Amino acid sequence: MMLIECPWCGPRNETEYGYGGEAHVAYPADPNALTDNEWAKFLFYRKNPKGLFAERWVHSAGCRRWFNAVRDTLTYEFKAVYKPGEPQPIATTNAPAQGGTK
Amino acid sequence: MAEQVLTDISALRTSPLAHMAFALQQGAVAGERGVSARELAFTTQIGLRAEPGSEAHAALAAATGVGLPASVGEVAGNAEGTAVLWSGPDEFLVVAPEGTELFDDLVAALGQSAGQVVDLSANRTVVELSGPSARLVLEKGCPADLHPRSFGVGTAIATVLGPVPVLLWKTAEDTFRLLPRASFADYTARWLLDAMTEFASPEVD
């Protein structure tokens, strides 16, 4: 069993959390301009790196807030957690685009 | 023919654990390993939302009479009167005895500011678990650290008991209040009764 640090509630058991997939997937500026292929890529295609990965988590049984985390997909170790809107503390291969921290 | 007019509809109310009252009474364990559970029905509960630092937050804090808790685990006020539990960075739950007239004051205090005041009295019921073995019972199904060093009297957190999301509030030494949603109350009570049973027997070495 893993302890995950919620930015608001502190360390809690992993069973209190839900997983939200890759973080920092920017919404297209003009969705209408996209081809079906590009739209499908935005909706469904996610990175799956070995190593550090920025991803979204929700503390569903606690404060019910979403936050971001940098996790090592090889060891499952959480390297950092940060609130939405805060800069990513550790660089990953799916780092946010310039200016986008959502 | 005389007509009977019902003037007080509170007589028709049924609390979520009314049907379990007798079972909970029977399931109480006495002695030095004792633990017992009972329902505190019909408490007044009001959900508040306001961003800390905003005018609405200050106005609501003043209107509750006990302020608003600042961070996780904190409870403003006290368990006998009005208490405010922290349920999120901008979300709070007022819990007060039955009949507390606070709702209108809070609505007036919020005014047109961004925020929420919602009457949630029927949302959750309150189960009070007390006795020397209360913490041992909860630790069978609650993943949170309930050791007194991190979960002292006057602490409340949102967590789970078995599969049920509950607010867990330590109101006194060896006394916990559980706030499951009304529809989970029956399961919670039966779960507690099952978990309490072993404490009626002597401890096995």
What does this structure look like?
- Chain A: Pfam families: SoxD.
- Chain A: It comes from Paeniglutamicibacter psychrophenolicus.
- Chain A: This is Heterotetrameric sarcosine oxidase delta subunit.
- Chain A: InterPro entries: SoxD (IPR006279), SoxD_sf (IPR038561).
- Chain A is mainly beta and 102 residues long.
- In chain A, 9% of the residues lie in helices and 31% in strands.
- Chain A is built from one helix and six strands.
- Chain A has one helix at 36-44, and strands at residues 3-6, 10-13, 18-22, 52-58, 66-72, 78-82.
- A four-stranded antiparallel sheet of chain A has the order 3-4-5-6, with no helix packed on it. Chain A has a two-stranded antiparallel sheet with strand order 1-2.
- In chain A, strand 1 (3-6) and strand 2 (10-13) form a beta hairpin.
- The longest helix of chain A has 9 residues, at 36-44.
- The radius of gyration of chain A is 14 Å and the shape is globular.
- Chain A starts with a strand and ends in a 20-residue tail after the last strand.
- The model of chain A is unreliable at 97-102 (pLDDT under 50).
- By secondary structure, chain B is an alpha+beta fold.
- Chain B has five helices and ten strands.
- Chain B has helices spanning 21-26, 55-64, 103-110, 134-139, 182-196; strands at residues 36-40, 44-49, 75-77, 83-88, 91-96, 116-119, 126-130, 155-161, 164-172, 175-180.
- In chain B, the strands form two sheets. Chain B has a five-stranded antiparallel sheet. In chain B, strands 3-4-5-2-6 form a five-stranded antiparallel sheet, with helices on one face.
- In chain B, strand 9 and strand 10 (175-180) form a beta hairpin.
- The mean pLDDT of chain B is 94.
- Chain A binds chain B through residues 1, 8-10, 12-13, 15-16, 61-65, and chain B through 71-72, 87-89, 91, 143-144, 157-160, 165.
